[in-house]
Specification:
Layout: E1 2-5, E2 15-29, E3 32-45, E4 53-63, E5 68-78
Antiparallel strand pairs: 1-2, 2-3, 3-4, 4-5
Length: 82
């Protein structure tokens, strides 16, 4: 699923955003399940495109009857400031 946000669709768009998400569940074997969630966001302002920003988060959970392991990774990329 992707969501595009543009508050002002005229000639002077203030900020554009793009958001996306994906979720998946996989049965690896009769006792093990994998659950993954991925979220993405990007934003750029028309007045300051040099300050564009992108963020992504991935959450992976491995579930077994006696325990579960979860790993969450977030990355943020931002263009340099003046």
């Amino acid at each position: 699923m992707w969501k595009i946000g543009m508050p002002n669709l005229g000639h002077t768009m203030e900020q554009g955003t793009l958001e996306g998400a994906r979720e998946e569940r996989v049965q690896l074997d009769p006792l093990t399940r994998l659950h993954g969630r991925h979220r993405y966001t990007a934003a750029v302002a028309s007045r300051r495109p040099d300050l564009a920003r992108m963020e992504s988060t991935t959450d992976i959970r491995l579930e077994r009857p006696v325990a579960a392991t979860e790993v969450v990774v977030t990355t943020v990329t931002a263009a340099g400031s003046p």
